[in-house]
Amino acid sequence: MLRGESETDHAVCLFVSPETCPAPPTGTMRGVRRLGLLAGTALVALALGGCGVKSEPTGAGGAFPSHAVDAAGQTVTLASPPLRIVSLDPGATAILRDLGLNAEAVTVTSANLVDEAANPSTALVIVPTTLEPALLQALTTSATAPVFRYGAVPLTDAPTTITQLGLVVGKGPEAAVIAKAVAAELATLAAQLATEPPVRVLIEGRGFTAYGPSTPAGLAVAAAGGTNVVTVDQPLNLTDVVALNVAAWVSLQPGGSTLTSLLAYPEFAGVPAVKDGRIVPLPKEGFAIDAALPGALKALADDLHSAPVSTG
């Protein structure tokens, strides 16, 4: 069973039929806190709109003060609908757009994050959990708005992350619909991967460096049925690579190797990934956590498990 799926299913059940919904699955205290927040918002939605989740926007006027638990386990509260949301995370920005909050969302970069967050009209700041500690410290020092950390470890927790973001911006029912669809697609992918053996994968980027399973790319590979052959980020040498016997080579872009560059080394002739031409490009930042995540992971899984191609 996918992590995050059971919590999301329970949340949607609470929206639709609280009187018949089974008890939530046993989990961590973090999961219990999340489900409690989901249940409270579900009851408000039912009281305002009757049974069922509406497919059209329902408005946020009755959902405040809002409460949600971010990916860092912190409770984030908003007293009123946010009129300006600063977002550094592309997945969160996409979800805000899907929730009808495109006009409220302000996309920023690391360079202008602190300044935009300090704007007095900013009501919420969204950053990825991978944000550099120094930048996070500068942000929390200067920003008066709550900071919501967005992410999912493993990526199969994405439905819960999406649901929590919806809750904090007053769009809980709408976000639950998106999360339910994402959970269903991830379950389909998991069923497919359960019938296939895991693939030994090397994740390599600029400077001939290998990346471990806790990186964004590592999380994507794990969710796509790959087994990372290194446990921590480390520089590579030719002898080490040959000994790893990898079946798929994930090349992080920009800066990762290509099949042509790898074939220039005679030592790699016997490496299965190089011999079979299974060199898979992947953005260094991995995949955004949004409605398109399952499709991106499905494409990566297909590439990792693809048939050999001619290198001649």
Description:
This protein is of the alpha/beta class. It folds into two domains: 5-189, Nitrogenase molybdenum iron protein domain (Rossmann fold, 3-Layer(aba) Sandwich); 196-304, Rossmann fold (3-Layer(aba) Sandwich), CATH 3.40.50.1980. It is built from twelve helices and twelve strands. It has helices at residues 5-16, 29-49, 90-98, 113-117, 133-142, 158-168, 172-193, 216-223, 238-244, 259-263, 272-275, 293-304; strands at residues 66-69, 75-78, 85-87, 105-107, 124-128, 147-150, 199-205, 209-210, 226-228, 234-235, 248-253, 279-283. Strands 7, 8, 9, 10, 11 and 12 form a six-stranded mixed β-sheet that branches. A four-stranded parallel β-sheet has the order 4-3-5-6. Helix 5 links the parallel strand 5 and strand 6. Helix 1 runs parallel beside helix 2 and helix 1 (5-16) packs across helix 7 (172-193). It is elongated, with a radius of gyration of 21 Å. Mean pLDDT is 85; it is low at 1-12, 14-20 and 24-61.
